[in-house]
From TrEMBL:
Domain Ketoreductase: start-end pairs: 7-172
Keyword Oxidoreductase: yes
Keyword Oxidoreductase: yes
Biological process according to GO: fatty acid biosynthetic process
Highest taxon listed in the record's lineage: Bacteria
Record keywords, A-Z: Oxidoreductase
GO molecular function: oxidoreductase activity, acting on the CH-OH group of donors, NAD or NADP as acceptor; quinone binding
Similarity remark: Belongs to the short-chain dehydrogenases/reductases (SDR) family.
Name of the protein in question: Short-chain dehydrogenase/reductase SDR
Record-linked InterPro entries: KR_dom, NAD(P)-bd_dom_sf, Sc_DH/Rdtase_CS, SDR_fam
A Pfam family reported for this protein in Swiss-Prot or TrEMBL: adh_short_C2
Length: 232
């Protein structure tokens, strides 16, 4: 018996590296997975929208409930980077990253929470080790990812008694389009800080998400680091 048979999940940014892998893992468990994608993947079930657009989020969530009957699982995975040193970081780049990574996740929670409470569901927020440790050139990104940790812990406290679990994962360097664009010298320096001397694969992150959704039934309000043993 598959563990998520009859369940419905929304994964934001499902057309990206980690989102696509999460979609595959949850689908293998029998879950109906719906992507909320900014960039269309033309795979599986997807809605094309910008998660910073609250009206679009609310309408798409309503449509999902109408068509698929329920929502049990929300994976807030969509994220962007706009790296720069503070001197050079524009206000626009600060706003864009906070709006997508943090406020976008909140928009999704607001739209889905009643359904998730009704179904005693699960929320996973994709944070980052950078949200826990900080990083040069990433004040916007690290603040957004640290914000997701606060969102996670507060939601876990607010809804634990309703049997809803809310956790965050904090990946290190994972091989995806997001890290592909990093300059070679940054990648090389990063590798030296990872005890396993390699970047992670999206599938490895997705397996953690699958565990948290299915078997991690007494894990709540936690941030699980998945970074191959990295010293920042
Ligand atoms: P990616 O760039 O392949 O995927 C990000 C996805 O988010 C894309 O599908 C993109 O279209 C979507 N997205 C961006 N803005 C959106 C919006 N406004 N509305 C809807 N969707 C939007 O990157 P990756 O690596 O798969 O990242 C997934 C998550 O993992 C992100 O939150 C990222 O910050 C996080 N992460 C990634 C790490 C890595 O090393 N790749 C490390 C730690 C965290």
């Amino acid at each position: 018996m598959k563990k998520l048979e009859g369940k419905v999940a929304i994964v934001t940014g499902a057309s990206g590296g980690i989102g696509r892998a999460i979609t595959k893992e949850l689908t293998e468990e029998g879950c109906t997975v719906i992507g909320f994608n900014y960039v269309p993947s033309n795979e599986g079930i997807e809605y094309v929208l910008d998660i910073t657009n609250r009206q679009a989020v609310e309408e798409a969530v309503k449509d999902v409930i109408g068509k698929y009957g329920r929502i049990d699982i929300l994976i807030n995975n969509a994220g962007i980077t706009k790296d720069n040193l503070v001197y050079r970081m524009s206000y626009e780049d600060w706003d864009a990253v906070i709006n997508t990574n943090l406020t976008g996740a909140f928009n999704m929670v607001k739209a889905c929470i009643r359904e998730i409470v009704k179904n005693e569901g699960v929320i996973i927020n994709v944070s980052s080790v950078v949200g826990l440790e900080g990083n040069i050139g990433q004040v916007n990104y690290s603040a957004s990812k640290a914000g997701l940790v606060g969102l996670t812990k507060s939601l876990a406290k607010e809804f634990g008694r309703k049997n809803v679990r809310v956790n965050a994962i904090a990946p290190g360097f994972i091989e995806t389009p997001m890290t592909e664009k990093l300059p070679e010298e940054i990648k090389k320096a990063a590798l030296e800080k990872i005890s396993m001397r390699r970047f992670g694969k999206p599938e490895e992150v997705a397996k953690l998400v699958r565990f948290l959704v299915t078997d991690g039934t007494y894990i709540n309000g936690q941030v699980i680091v998945i970074d191959g043993g990295m010293e920042m």
